[in-house]
Amino acid sequence: MTTPDHEEHELQSLLRAHADRVDVPGDFAPGAIARRRRDRRTRATLGAVAAAAVIAVAVPTVWSADRGTPPPVPAVSASSTAVLPSPTGDPTTPQTERATATRDTAYALDDTIRYGDQVIQLEKGTVVESFAVLAGGGFVLQSHRSTGASQSEMEILSPTGRTVAALGTSGMYAVSGDGLRVVAKSGTSDTVVVHDANGVELARRTDPREVAAVVGDLVYLGGDSQQGSLEWNLSTGGTRALPAHVVAVSENGRRAALRWSVAGDAMDEACWAVVDLTQPSFPRTVERCGAGKNPSMFMPTAFSSRSTYLVGSMAVDGGYWFSAGVVRVEDGSTVLGGTGDAAVSGWTWHLADDESSLVISRNTSQPLSPATANTLQSCSLTLDCTELGAQQPPRDRDGTTEPRYVVPR
């Protein structure tokens, strides 16, 4: 198992690669690294408190393997759920039948989740890192507090914002395309747990691999070159060995995306591939590796709804922001994104279900670095953009820029 320092070094080296090719000033440190450091600071703080307190009790630390996952910071209490004024400032009237959140309509702004005229107030000071919309209008939320030494927490929320299942700290999760299954793994455990959209636990297994995807009753766990990846059938309990480095699987279950890095002359190089899961040998239909074939350092994270595209990020130096990327599954050609003037700077994004538009929490600063402006936009694949949410100044936390808007996965 790799250590946190080794993992951070690998991630940071990969994201810094080719930074000198990008014509923007500043330094790039992604949110994943910032969250890892925040959690480790929390661990150190709690450990120091335990050492100073001469009492006969065990003080839990963030990364202790000898305890269960602590209850997460509640996203909202039953008594505090409220319908707030809409983003335009107009008051909204509570309705008997609440509208249902969808991936196309929902977004987070500060410590609220919004869709249509509905505004769900999370606990004050909640900073949304990522979220997903579930069938029936519930949510998976990954967040931390805006003040103090706060680690990342994952939880399933009801449509009104009430916590119905705690998923653990500093981990990873995946949601099926139909929103019926949630697979999560806490950063403090090797236990992979599957829930339904209502927070009811369906299955669990102990596995060192990381959560990659869930398609129907098939859960996909990504492993390194020694472990390999795994397909886990929830209906039968059976498993199937898959190629290493799986990070995403298409909705039809026919393709998987791989992501890995290789050592270069001066730094690690980003690599990705698409493999055919219908063939026993899992042939690679597309592969891009290293500066020569993957100059923009594209790193896939998800397939589009119809499996036409891969959506991911392209490493860019400057201002603690990411760069959106979309490539075609069939041949690996870039459809959106790149380096220099082609960079689409932002923090979170997804391709709409019709595969024709990108919803993005975008960095609209001029110049891009340092990042001083965050706007919610919907853009065509040719970058004709419409503003969905007014420009906001990003937050700064311990030298890391945090966006005000977050787009669901």
- Largest sheet report: 8 strands, antiparallel
Helical fraction equals: under 10%
Number of helices: 3
Shape: globular
Instruction: Decide which structural class fits the backbone.
Output: mainly beta
Number of domains: 2
What is the arithmetic mean of pLDDT? 81
- Give the CA-CA distance, first to last residue: 28 Å
Count the E strands.
Answer: 30
Rounded to the nearest angstrom, the radius of gyration is: 21 Å
Q: What's the helix and strand layout?
A:
Elements: H1 4-16, H2 31-52, E1 107-109, E2 112-115, E3 118-121, E4 126-133, E5 139-145, E6 153-157, E7 163-169, E8 172-175, E9 181-185, E10 191-196, E11 201-206, E12 210-215, E13 218-222, E14 229-233, E15 239-242, E16 246-249, E17 255-263, E18 268-276, E19 284-289, H3 290-293, E20 298-303, E21 309-314, E22 322-328, E23 334-336, E24 345-351, E25 357-363, E26 374-380, E27 385-392, E28 395-397, E29 400-402, E30 405-406
Explained architecture:
By secondary structure, this protein is mainly beta. The chain folds into two domains: 1-67 and 245-409, no CATH class; 69-91 and 100-242. It has three helices and 30 strands. The strands form seven sheets. Strands 20, 21, 22, 23, 24, 25, 26 and 27 form an eight-stranded antiparallel β-sheet that branches. Strands 3-2-1-30 form a four-stranded antiparallel β-sheet, with no helix packed on it. Strand 8 and strand 9 form a beta hairpin. The two termini are 28 Å apart. The chain crosses the membrane at residues 44-63. Keywords: Membrane, Transmembrane, Transmembrane helix. Residues 75-87 have a biased composition (Low complexity). Residues 64-102, 388-409 are annotated as: Disordered. Residues 89-102 have a biased composition (Polar residues).
